[in-house]
Design brief:
Blueprint lengths: L5 E5 L7 H17 L4 E8 L2 H5 L11 H11 L3 E6 L2 H4 L3 H12 L2 E6 L13 H9 L4 E4 L4 E2 L2 E2 L2 H10 L2 H8 L3 E8 L4 H5 L4 E3 L10 E9 L2 E10 L10 E6 L11 E11 L7 H23 L5
Parallel strand pairs: 1-2, 1-4, 2-3, 4-5
Antiparallel strand pairs: 6-7, 8-9, 8-13, 9-12, 10-11, 10-13, 11-12
Helix pairs in contact: 7-8
């Protein structure tokens, strides 16, 4: 891609939701119709600008970098370019940013902007103003129309609210896929494997998490998708402790993946996490959870593309 002209867009793209996808589809279309010799790129920022400007604690994200790379590759984007966001970059006006980075460093010939895209000091310019400023350099630019879910504009903030409130159906419709987290399987206490059912304990890092509880879901390992009962909580029957994410794979007897990176998909909330009087009572409930989860997974598999 070095030296090649780019058709590009700029933004954070947390979640890579259906609004982002519409924007990226237009990037691909513009490349194919206008600049077939060009590469397609997403120019993004790390860490998230809100974390730098508002000095927030580490931001919880919808999509890890690993997942973002995978999704962009699947869509057909050639490159994700990450610019380190700091106070110096935040103080740069939009015109200087275009001259230094978009044109000078990355040779962007065609800039595609979303309906809420904004960059430059103070985020003062609208997408239409940014497009006009880029065209003033003798290059092409356009703004893609807004994408709505119902009557409301799709956005990462709304999706985050839905996940925190447990509205996984709305979140998945706006994401275009079930919400998921990517993490490494780590060593657990071993109680489940010895006394109940084997589980994979997944380190979820800085992912935004839904409410605690038991969920029907999938665990994706490499390219294989497995039915699972997913528990997010404190394991009160087993003595409690820190919040853990653990998944029992229901369709593979010898599922062993410690140390590997897996992806856990939250499909449907099944029940609250409660403290049982005995392990026998918990086992009986787990059997019911497995039956419910397998039914949910069967329905989702029919039209799922993940």
């Amino acid at each position: 891609m070095s030296g090649s002209p780019l058709v590009a867009t700029v933004g954070n793209f947390d979640g890579l939701h259906i609004g982002h996808r519409a924007l990226l589809e237009r990037v691909l279309e513009a490349r194919d119709s206008e600049l077939p010799e060009a590469a397609c790129a997403v120019i993004s920022f790390y860490p998230h600008p809100a974390q730098v400007l508002r000095e927030e604690k580490p931001r919880l994200y919808l999509t890890s970098l690993r997942k973002k790379f995978q999704l962009l590759d699947k869509i057909g984007v050639d490159a994700l370019i990450l610019l380190r966001f700091d106070h110096a970059l935040s103080s740069m006006d939009a015109k200087t940013f275009m001259e230094k980075y978009l044109i000078g460093q990355f040779n962007v010939e065609y800039l595609i902007l979303g309906s809420d895209t904004s960059f430059g000091k103070g985020r003062k310019k609208s997408p239409d103003e940014l497009a006009a400023a880029f065209k003033a350099f003798g290059r092409k630019a356009e703004v893609v129309p807004v994408v709505r879910y119902g009557s409301r504009k799709v956005g990462s903030g709304w999706i985050r609210d839905c996940i925190l409130e447990g509205d996984l159906d709305a979140a998945s419709r706006m994401l275009g896929r079930p919400y998921s987290v990517v993490g490494r399987v780590v060593r657990g206490a071993g109680v489940g494997r010895r006394s109940l059912v084997p589980t994979a304990n997944i380190a979820f890092g800085r992912h935004l998490m839904p409410p605690k509880g038991v969920y029907a879901g999938f665990v994706k390992r490499n390219d294989n998708l497995h039915n699972a009962v997913i528990n997010l909580g404190l394991r009160p029957t087993l003595g409690g402790g820190d919040t853990v994410l653990e998944a029992h794979v229901t369709d593979c007897k010898d599922f062993e993946c410690r140390g590997e990176i897996v992806e856990a998909y939250f499909l449907k909330w099944l029940r609250e996490e409660i403290k049982f009087d005995s392990l026998d009572a918990l086992r009986a409930q787990i059997a019911k959870d497995i039956e419910l989860a397998d039914g949910v997974c069967a329905r989702y598999r029919r039209d799922l593309d993940i």
